[in-house]
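Researcher: Please translate sequence to structure tokens.
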Amino acid sequence: MKFLPLATALIATSLVNGVACSKKKKSSGAAAVTALATEASEDTLLSAAVATGALAINSIDILGVGAQEGASLRLASTDYDTDKGRTNVYDPSLDSLKQVSGILCFFNQAAYIEMAGKGPYIAQADMDTCFNEGGGESSSSSSGGSQDQSASKQKNLTTVFVESVRESEMHPLIVKAWFSMNESDGEQKMHVKMVIAEGQNEQNPLGIFKLTWEGFDANDTSIQKGFIEAKRASDSGKISLNFVEQSSFGEETFSQSLASILDYDSALGEVVGGVVRTLIPNWNSMSKVGEGEGEGKVESVASTGLTEMTNSEYLAAFNSSRFLRKDVAAGTSQCLAKDEFDYNVYRYGLYDATSGSRKDLNSGFPVTIEQNGETIYGWAGYWGVWLGEAAVTDGMSVQRMDYDTGATTPYTVKASPGKLMKRSKETLALSKLAGVEFNVWDVNGSSIIAYNSSKNAFEKIGTSGDYGTTEYLATPVDYTLGKDYGDKFPNNFWSQSLGGSVVVYSDNEGAIVGTNAYYYKEENVTGSASNLTLYCYQQCPRGAITDSSNSTYDDENMAAVTDWGDQAAMASALKQVYTFNASTMELIDAESGEAVKITDSSTGMTYVMSGALVAAELSNPFGAWEENVYYTWETGTNSWNQYIALRDANGQTVAFDSPMFLKYTHSQANDRSGASSSKYYDKPYLLTYEGFGNLWGIPSGSDDNGFWKAQFALKDGALLGDSNQYKVKALDMELAMKQKDLGECGTLATSSPELPTISAFKSPNNGAIPVLTGAPSVVEGVVKISQ
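Model: Translation complete:
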């Protein structure tokens, strides 16, 4: 885990990792979260504790907000009632704890309590679930979904070697873990250890533990290290929580630290107040003073022309209802409410609205390959096959392990040079689109338009710029639709809320035709499909593409048109015929007999996409895009431009469930904040569900602080689908405390507890990585092989 860069990617995973350790949750080890540190004998604070009970460190919740937000999640009958969620609070003064929450989430998937004493084992953990950047199209974000699912959606499972040992009920639990990560500057090997002397319980909501980590580069040079420890303070009724880490990038070294003294109430089982001091890198201070810095990479100050890094210091104090934060350098303070929040949900669960049963999809399974004497673990699913850094090639063999028997099942990879996407038209009344924003690109640039139902016309309400910036007009102006193109001209707009392209028709005068708009849901055409004959009339790609000038038949076919006023004659001249071969998953150009693919990548061409392909011949060559169903073919040198599947020993393609498309109209009753008004209320959305925790399609954008996030959050129990047949529940949620008048923080006073230093760091000294073969014993927290 490369923690310093992850610090910038952990906006979603800051302080409160909440539901599991709230006052409603008594001391239970059922949902353990792994955290790793030094041996008990190496630290007197651990040896002084009595190691009793289930030694689970579920989360780090020093504000107690998890109890407030999580109470409704802990009923006790259906999947909907019992599935646990994570609640995190973001505040810059607590920023240095956010990767700790991510670590705890990540190692929660190693099931270290269940596997204690069973010897070394392999676990697979989904890092994207815990280390996301919030909002937008992150792997684990529920916002900003698009119907263009061409980008890779494969799971990013990290292979972790784990050993969990506890000699007796009176001894601490010691957990060691080893794993590797491929970063932009090379592979990084992580050694992590935790010693838990006392689990979280009613009397001590943080537990007593020490977590230590160290990362090494390809030359076995230590490039990052850190620890977090929780212990009883000298004052009765107080807990000390300290954290420090240091990372190196080339010639530069960065560090951050936190010290806190916390008051806890044993009757409530939660922290009720305290003081915090934190020192974190101020990345904004690294402003450019020269030319030519490398994007996304920190190099030496001299080589990049960057100014010196500075640190930001914050002091904070809080009680049961308010949080006082002081920016030391700026000399400013803010008072925040611990019971009023802005919400951002990253992951939702989907459940049957009546039974409360979890809606699971057969979205994929883990696979392995042997390469250069090493076992590589990957994932196969609806969007393809992922093998980490290993290349996925046609004809290669992968193994699926039966977790119950240990038997393996071989599969063969079928990699097509392209993929066929099916787009099915959906109808939506224009009256439902009032106020919905659309992006349109025309001769005037990129405009934002909206439908005005009282005028039955579209208006330009603003312009969009780089990086998602938007500038709204003080007064909307009329937007002219396409005219002079016939009685039914398709105007194509892009809608974030509807996940892609939306079509509205206009006549010769530019007036709207009909009372409906149309949008398309998109699906992969998989190996279970039948052969198809398809017809193309515009942007028709050639077989065996060798360069950009040879990519389509457009110029050649248009030159054959002799009468541009005769649509039937035009259709005959422009028509190009293809066959989709479901066995080879290739699109064959009928004229040349060649597969439509790029055969010469030396020209720099990496991607080609067809126009609309239809299953029946047309008399109107411009009507393909208006069909209720049409297809597109894309081919390229990148994996996301290709169809990659598995085939069994009989040559049958393994079928995975396709995503579900769920219609939804947002309302105040379903809004988690319950705001009295919102521009998103009464607007339609097409959400995409790709398996538990993966719900996409909620609009995203930048907030006032520049963070990319979902524009609204669904309330638990909100109903989705044509017949309201499903309901949702937040699984991973971030809260931002709302600002209050400074006077509301009353007598709260900050102080400066002593910060820990990296000189107190002791290496985990985990030793060599265990030599293990076979299937993972644990996948995403679920024990598959108990050993």
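Researcher: Any highlights?
Model: Residues 98-108 form the longest helix (11 residues).
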